[in-house]
Write a structure and sequence with these properties.
mainly alpha; globular
């Protein structure tokens, strides 16, 4: 008599994605990083003038801050949270164990990416509602360009997270991931536009995945257009980071 067979691949990946998303949303530190801190940044910068946002004539702080905070939320989930979780899962042997199950390495990675996307949907809905409550009125036509940018940025940032988690010790991943998050929050083109940053650094920010996503979402929300340059930057980061992660990621 044949033993029980494994569930179909799509069912295995979907189950893993649900588990990943549930784990992230139940983790207090993750919720703080992915929802609470971005919400505080959103309300604080939209209601005060403590940070120079380089506003154009007639532009309101919330119009600049809200898309940037959504970009910050994507960075928090796809890069910082994923790098830290993967680093500690690797140290504890969870990754190596799951890779030997019917899910396999490809299914595990697919489930993680889908889990990240599910959490991002929750972030966009909740943070978007907060932004609307404080006066944000984005162009509805920017929904599709914005979704495309978020999708490509998620691929790029998750690949970077896996690269970081796959080559460093868990404690080093924790330190580096949080340091990168803080540095990009301040000067990565997320909530503070490139135009408000010093000249040479402003030019560099456009080439960073954080800057490309922040600037791209601001344009999409302002006039409903797709920032093609931002999309190309994110695509380049996604391809290079994925190839690097495939080459250097270690499962144990």
């Amino acid at each position: 008599m044949d033993g029980p067979s494994a569930a179909p691949l799509l069912a295995r990946v979907a189950a893993q994605a649900r588990w990943e998303a549930g784990t992230m949303l139940r983790n207090g530190e993750q919720v703080l990083l992915t929802l609470v801190l971005p919400a505080l940044v959103l309300v604080g910068l939209a209601r005060t003038e403590v940070v120079d946002l380089g506003l154009a004539a007639g532009e309101r702080p919330v119009d600049v801050v809200a898309p940037g905070v959504l970009a910050l939320a994507v960075l928090s989930t796809a890069f910082t949270g994923q790098a830290i979780a993967t680093g500690f899962d690797r140290r504890s042997g969870v990754l190596r164990l799951l890779a030997t199950t019917p899910l396999g390495r490809g299914g595990l990675l697919a489930g993680r990416v889908l889990g990240v996307l599910a959490v991002e949907v929750v972030q966009v809905v909740l943070l978007g509602a907060v932004a609307v409550a404080v006066g944000w009125r984005p162009d509805p036509l920017g929904l599709l360009p914005g979704a495309l940018l978020v999708l490509v940025a998620t691929a790029a940032l998750t690949a970077l997270a896996l690269l970081l988690a796959g080559v460093l010790r868990a404690e080093a991943v924790l330190a580096v991931a949080n340091l990168v998050w803080a540095a990009l929050l301040v000067g990565g083109g997320l909530v503070v536009p490139a135009a408000a940053l010093p000249g040479p650094w402003a030019a560099l920010v456009h080439a960073l995945p954080s800057g490309a996503l922040g600037e791209g979402l601001r344009r999409a929300s302002a006039d409903g257009a797709l920032d093609v340059r931002a999309l190309l930057v994110l695509l380049a980061w996604a391809v290079v980071a994925a190839l690097a992660a495939r080459r250097w990621f270690r499962w144990d």
